[in-house]
Protein: Phosphonopyruvate decarboxylase-related protein
Amino acid sequence: MRAIIILLDGLGDRSSEILNNKTPLQYAKTPNLDTLSKKGMCGLLTPYKEGIPLGTEVAHFLLWGYSLHEFPGRGVIEALGENIEIENNAIYLRASLGFVKKDDKGFLVVDRRTKDIDKEEIEKLIKELPTCIDGYEFELFYSFDVHFILKIKERNGWISDKISDSDPFYKNRYVMKVQPIKELCNGEVEYSKAKDTAKALNKYLLNVHKILENHKINKKRRKSEKMPANFLLTKWASRYKKVEDFKERWGISSVILAQSSLFKGLAKFLGMDFIRINSFEEGIDLIPELDYDFIHLHTKDTDEAAHTKNPMNKVKVIEKIDQSIGKLKLREDDLLVITADHSTPSVGGLIHSGESVPIIIFGKNIRIDDVENFNEVSCSKGHLRIKGEELMPLILNYTDRALLYGLRPGKKLRRYIPSDDDVDIL
Structure:
């Protein structure tokens, strides 16, 4: 029995006047999703806690049954997705070339991503940057657009990832000083290391800015009235940690179908298979061929449409997705789950928001409720009220793999019914 999760990134939203006080999902014509809602069990899923916005990586980590204290940080996940060889005594950050203006207060971020700059220009800029400061080694790995993975190592000791971001993330803000985060540190020794790491990174970023500001590439760009790339903005410092892989935790084989390297990184970190797809439609067409126990199909299209802050753009994307879902071919005993990882409001100032998201569970012997439309409001009348961490136990339950609580088969506590191959036979 396969469990198929169709994850519509950032599907949840808010109502808006332009849509007659409906959400994009309420407003959109979704006959296929509505049909599934009539034949399935619906409700609302809270990815973590009501009112707390999540990023895609953390939300998926919770949905797949892992806890926040197990999460290593996005920097490591992205590094894995870029095929960077991970070292235990190093930290990894996302770094992006942006445009800042210096004033009396500090460095005002005019644009977090320098526009209209090609890879050749970027390579010439990066070639000039320092690689060592105060005993710390800095190495940049190009990713895409103006983005990099920044790897930092200390030559003669260990390094802490318990440091803050320099990237303010929001518009019209100043570059932030990197600082140690005491409540994340395990004692004074690690806090001291975090202080040293933050100090070295601040020095590195200021040196990088000085070099970039005076680089001939940026001087040429200014003459052409183009935006210079004069600051390296950093966030998501993290280091590798070992966690239980997905099959070990849940007893099932798994594959992720997605487009981005972020999901490739998540798959590597959790020991899941990964198939890169070019579109949501390609993933829908691929599902019938796959024999994994757990198939996770992800699309970013809904999230990206919401980020345009035009609700009608999201409506159009939802309607296109609904057409593709209508072509999905299921096996008789498949369990289908359709939901989202978080809400992405197409109105207002937030990037992601903390509202719950709709969910359908469709399959044999499901308790069918009275919901007839798939959207945030209609699904609130459905059977389910769950948190992200409860999704995997539900999947085990509805695929008849859930172990009776209190049983102890084998040398470790499990949530799934193990096979004879999973335990030692007397």
About this structure: The mean pLDDT is 95. The CA atoms of residues 38 and 162 lie 48 Å apart. The radius of gyration is 23 Å. The first strand starts at residue 3 and ends at 8.
